[in-house]
Specification:
By secondary structure, the chain is of the alpha/beta class. The chain folds into three domains: about 90 residues, Helicase, Ruva Protein, domain 3 (Orthogonal Bundle), CATH 1.10.8; about 130 residues, 3-Layer(aba) Sandwich (Rossmann fold); about 80 residues, Orthogonal Bundle (Arc Repressor Mutant, subunit A), CATH 1.10.10.10. The strands form two sheets. The chain has a five-stranded parallel beta sheet with strand order 2-3-4-1-5, with helices on both faces. About 35% of the residues are buried.
Length: about 350
């Protein structure tokens, strides 16, 4: 990345912080009202259900919103592994918490399972048992696809058609997300409306891609000393949208491959030596879950088809050993991006 990315570039726009951080912001959720209504209906009915969508579509934000809205939700992300003993302790509690809860009418918990496709089979069986015993009030799975092989078929049958597919943002919702993010950090909006519309189109109305592309345009504007970002500048930085008559060619060299600003920073950090997901998250100022997703992408464990279309055919990062915590390092392919 350009050297400006290593300083507080957002101060150039008189913002107190980077408004385009990709970690979920459930306190200021915008849009998806139809899906949120359906989610609450399933929860109040005590039905197990799934939230399905590609990486960056807003699944984690929806789960975090449930956690904040209900107050008794336990959020679990299986990307990168978890402490199973701690998970079971949170759900079941120790002896005294169960004993006192019996007399106090303990509030039953809503379990929110993110990246459910990574959940071990034994945990899914344990969760099913706790749900059947009535210890869990509601059980929500979020996954990149609905064909979870790690969930027993009888339990899949109980989920049935209760699958909420995360849709794309509408243009109105996309405008609200960007403006709310910006005005939460300051009063200066450098984007023209047409510039934002082009960003939405390039991002395919995906929340995370919109935030990543807004950040990329802002950093580039600071580097080029541009105060206002218009449609032409967006097309210069992100590339013009291909028409249907143009065949999209696979990039022929590494310089043609575009990584997101966060991915560039991850690679830069790993160039200094191996690191854990938590350490990278602290250095970047992002959530552990969001960095775990990016590492999974760079390792070609998720969104493989999408990344291969961009020309990334070999993992850029890899894990070291099998212990905990998990350490990551750059591959030879990843070092080419330094």
């Amino acid at each position: 990345m350009d050297e400006i990315s290593d300083i507080k570039w957002f101060q150039k726009f008189e913002w107190s912080d980077n408004p385009f951080k990709i970690q979920p912001d459930p306190d200021h959720i915008v849009g998806f009202l139809d899906m949120r209504t359906k989610i609450l209906t399933y929860i109040y009915s005590r039905d197990p259900f799934m939230v399905v969508g590609p990486t960056g579509a807003g699944k984690t934000t929806l789960l975090k919103w449930i956690q904040n809205y209900k107050g008794n939700g336990i959020y679990v992300n299986f990307l990168g592994g978890i402490d199973e003993k701690e998970l079971k302790r949170q759900i079941s509690g120790g002896f005294w918490s169960r004993f006192l809860g019996f007399f106090a009418g303990k509030k039953k918990k809503i379990i929110l399972v993110d990246e459910a496709q990574e959940m071990p089979y034994r945990i899914s069986k344990w969760l099913r048992a706790k749900f059947d015993e009535g210890e869990i009030f509601s059980l929500v799975f979020a996954s990149i696809n609905e064909n979870l092989e790690n969930i027993e078929h009888p339990f899949k049958d109980r989920i049935g058609g209760r699958i909420i597919r995360v849709r794309k943002l509408t243009e109105e919702e996309a405008f609200k997300i960007v403006r709310q993010r910006i005005f939460s950090q300051g009063r200066h909006n450098p984007f023209t409306d047409n510039a934002l519309r082009r960003i939405f189109e390039v991002s395919d109305y995906s929340p995370r891609k919109i935030l990543e592309n807004c950040e990329t345009c802002c950093i580039s504007a600071v580097n080029e000393k541009i105060e206002y970002i218009n449609k032409d500048f967006v097309e210069k930085i992100l590339g013009r949208l291909p028409t249907k008559t143009i065949k999209i060619e696979k990039p022929r060299n590494d310089s043609a491959i575009k990584l997101s600003p966060v991915q560039h920073r991850i690679i830069k950090i790993l160039s200094e030596g191996k690191s854990t997901t938590s350490d990278i998250a602290k250095k970047i100022g992002a959530s552990r879950a969001s960095i775990a997703k990016q590492l999974s992408r760079l390792a070609l464990k998720t969104d493989k088809k999408l990344l291969m279309k961009k020309g990334i055919t070999s993992p850029l990062v890899r894990t070291i050993g099998s212990g905990r915590p998990v350490f990551y390092e750059l591959t030879e392919e990843g070092k080419k991006f330094l």
